[in-house]
Design goal:
single chain; alpha/beta; Nitrilase/N-carbamoyl-D-aminoacid amidohydrolase; 6-stranded mixed β-sheet; 8 helices
Length: 273
C-alpha cells in the first residue's frame, strides 16, 4: 500500500523560500516512508504582479530550479509531484506547468494547464489567466508511478468533466489536482467538485492546495484533500495553516469500485444536441 505526502503551502514571491519549504517537506516525507510528495499549484512562485513575476522568472536562481528539484528527488529517494510553476515561453507568455520528478533524477514529465481561469467573481475579484498564460493542448497520464497510472491536472481543470473522463478512460488510478483556489469558490465548490471527479473517473483524487493570506495580497482556500474512488474524503488538511500530512492509498479500492459501479465500461457516446 503506497504512502503519499501532501504539502499544503503558503507560497510567496521568493522562489528560494518556497523551494526551502519543499526541501524540508521532502526530507520529512521520506523519513515517514512516503513514496511521492504532492505540492500545490504555483508552488515555487505565487505572484499576481506579472511584471515582478516576469523579472523573477528571468533570474538565474529561478532558471536553476528544475535541476535543483531533480537533485532533491534523487537525494531523498522519493518522487515529487510539483503541482505547478510558471515557465516562460518564447511567445512572451508563460505555461502553468505541472512537473513530475522521479527519484531516479531524470528530467520531469510535464503537463501544461489546459483551462484558463478567466472570471469576474461576485466579490469583485477579477482573474484573467489567459492574459499571461498559454493553455496547454494535451492531457497527461503517467505510467509506472508508485500509485500506478497518474493523471495530471491543475486547479480550474476540475470544472471540466470531459478531461477527467478522458483520464478515467485512460484507466488512471489516481489524478493530481494541485490548486490555488479562491476562498469564495472554495467554500462553494471545492469539496463537491473533487468528490464528483473522483467518482466519475473511479480513481483517487489528490489535491494539494495553497492556503491563507499570501505575499501578493491574494487569499486561498486550503483544504488539501485525498478522495477515494467512491467519493470518500480520506484526508482534509483544513483551511487554516500550511503543513504536511501523510495518507496511505489502498489501490485495491479502485477495482472494487469499478466492479460495483462500472460507469467507465458502460459509457456510451452521446451526440451533440
Amino acid at each position: 500500500m503506497p504512502r503519499i505526502a501532501l504539502l499544503q503551502m503558503n507560497s510567496g514571491i521568493d522562489p528560494r523560500a518556497n523551494f526551502a519549504a519543499i526541501e524540508a517537506a521532502m526530507g520529512e516525507a521520506a523519513r515517514a516512508g512516503a513514496q511521492v510528495l504532492f505540492t500545490p499549484e504555483m508552488s515555487l512562485l505565487l505572484d499576481r504582479d506579472r511584471r515582478r513575476g516576469a523579472e523573477t522568472m528571468a533570474s538565474a536562481a529561478y532558471g536553476s530550479m528544475e535541476a535543483r528539484l531533480r537533485d532533491l528527488a534523487r537525494a531523498n529517494g522519493i518522487d515529487l509531484a510539483l503541482g505547478s510553476r510558471p515557465v516562460p515561453l518564447a511567445s512572451g507568455k508563460s505555461a502553468n506547468r505541472a512537473e513530475y520528478y522521479r527519484a531516479d533524477g531524470e528530467p520531469p514529465a510535464t503537463y501544461d494547464k489546459i483551462h484558463m481561469f478567466d472570471v469576474e467573481l461576485a466579490t469583485g475579484e477579477t482573474w484573467r489567466e489567459s492574459n499571461a498564460y498559454e493553455p496547454g493542448k494535451q492531457p497527461a497520464a503517467l505510467a509506472d508511478t508508485p500509485l500506478g497510472t497518474l493523471g495530471l491536472t491543475i486547479c480550474y481543470d476540475m470544472r471540466f468533466p470531459a478531461l477527467f473522463e478522458a483520464l478515467g478512460q485512460a484507466r488512471c488510478d489516481a489524478i493530481a489536482v494541485p490548486a490555488a483556489f479562491t476562498v469564495p469558490t472554495g467554500r462553494a465548490h471545492w469539496h463537491v467538485l473533487l468528490r464528483a471527479r473522483a467518482i466519475e473517473a473511479s480513481a483517487f483524487v489528490i489535491a494539494a492546495a495553497q492556503v491563507g493570506e499570501h505575499e501578493d495580497g491574494r487569499a486561498t482556500y486550503g483544504h488539501s484533500l485525498v478522495v477515494d474512488p467512491w467519493g470518500e474524503v480520506l484526508l482534509d488538511m483544513g483551511g487554516e495553516e500550511p503543513g504536511l500530512c501523510l495518507c496511505d492509498i489502498d489501490l485495491s479500492r479502485i477495482a472494487e469500485v469499478r466492479a460495483q459501479v462500472p460507469s467507465l465500461a458502460n459509457r456510451r457516446n452521446i451526440p451533440n444536441l
